Amino acid sequence: MDPLQDSYDYLIAGAGPAGCLLANRLSADPSVSVLLLEAGGRDNYPWIHIPVGYLYCIGNPRTDWCYDTEPQAGLNGRALRYPRGRVLGGSSSINGMIYMRGQAGDYDAWAAAGNPGWAWQDVLPLFKRTENHYAGDSALHGAAGEWRVERQRLSWALLEAFRGAAAQSGIASIEDFNGGDNEGCSYFQVNQRSGVRWNASKAFLRGIAERPNLRVLTGAEVQRVALASGRAEGLHVRWQGREQLLRARREVLLCSGAIGTPAILQRSGIGAPSLLQQVGVGVAHALPGVGANLQDHLQLRLVYQVSGVPTLNQIAGSLWGKAGMGLEYLFKRSGPLAMAPSQLGAFARSSPEQASANLQYHVQPLSLERFGEPLHAFPAFTASVCNLRPYSRGSVAIRSLDVADAPLIQPNYLSDTRDLAVAADAIRLTRRIAAAPALAAFKPVEYKPGPDYQSEEDLHRAAAEIGTTIFHPVGTCKMGQGPDAVVDAQLRVHGIAGLRIADASIMPSIVSGNTCSPVLMIAEKAAELILQGHQRLAQAPLRETVLAV
């Protein structure tokens, strides 16, 4: 391997979706040099690419940071596993592969909060630019991008029945969740190519591997940002057993996600002074919002036993069933091994007072106690429902300067009583769907949380018992103005030149859906802003010369 240079034009910390896209866009200019840094390894682990392999990637230190939350008072003191990708492709290598943009109102709210250029009409072209949609180019979708979007390869009578029951409960069947208003029920579109996971590494790095001006470094842990005279001059990186300073001639770009990015800033002395002093870090730049504003989607996994219909519980419960699944995937790239973790989706309102859909369902023809444990021995389906716009806010904070010391993750689930009310309404709505005529032939019986939970207080207790993360942490380096903001609308860190953030941490408020593709949009926006800014700088001397003449 060629030795590292001392400096590059752009240093990118984190090779998740945002980092991979930025490396692609910035290195398209052969006159600049780009170094992409990833703490994990190559994405050559076979289970990354077989869709069902997420079961073997989550909780696996080869592909996952293996974080845990602090014990959550709102979840009866339970701590939750908190997976984050630690491999090329980042969380796109271990996630549910669902292609989802959210709602137009999400982005309009960002713009209205003082972030010009982030409204739906501004970001829709960015989503389209990145996209390679199976149906081709249209007013809503793009076909020339790298981010492959396909229909799922599956057929389950139980899912069709749930879709019919949702329609009977007022949730209409629709074809596409990604037009700006996702209310309705449909099958999720997924980031796969012919039944194989399509992660950000394949999409944005594979085709440019020969660019001489791009270096992708794995096994490289970013310790902290190097600061000098109010500017980010580079990154301190630990690679091959030693720490070294790598300098950025133009910009340092942090793309390490809602957990990793605030931790890097805090180790650099950028954050809330009280925390920095507590862990023995000198205050280089006070930014109280670093690590604050953590938001996540808490899912309530309701399980229903059924009869007279196939579910994955029975199929995967026999050797013949497992062999059949393997052969179907081997020869057709279809069947259960090609399934995303969730197949059918629905967006609904928890109550008539909601202005738009504030609940998202992930429906699966299977059930289990929790991910990583065996499927139940009885036939069942899971209707997982999450509050898309929670009021509860949490935080991320380093415990020490040691990268190996996992940060303290405190989501504070259900700490706001308004979230408890939405949770209770969500359980009631799910019960109405399960009781609709379209599902009657399969005799659904509620297994979790169970029919004994009826009163408002009971349902609050049920939410605390069955609630778990759906792995969508955002918001810990909030975009905006004011004392709690970390970056401006250009994604530049307030008060520090040459430092920009492009990942889920900059979301002022969480999007109404899965978060991977919105992160790619954020990175596409960042690339545009960076390139436009450099072009303006390059033209400035010319303009001055013309004016002088």
Automatic annotation (TrEMBL):
Gene3D superfamilies: FAD/NAD(P)-binding domain (3.50.50.60), Glucose Oxidase, domain 3 (3.30.560.10). Residues 85-108, 257-271 form the Glucose-methanol-choline oxidoreductase N-terminal domain. InterPro entries: FAD/NAD-bd_sf, GMC_OxRdtase, GMC_OxRdtase_N, GMC_OxRtase_C. Keywords: FAD, Flavoprotein, Oxidoreductase. Its cofactor is FAD. It comes from the Bacteria. Belongs to the GMC oxidoreductase family. PANTHER family: CHOLINE DEHYDROGENASE, MITOCHONDRIAL, GLUCOSE-METHANOL-CHOLINE GMC OXIDOREDUCTASE. This is Choline dehydrogenase. It comes from Pseudomonas cuatrocienegasensis. The lineage of its organism: Bacteria, Pseudomonadati, Pseudomonadota, Gammaproteobacteria, Pseudomonadales.
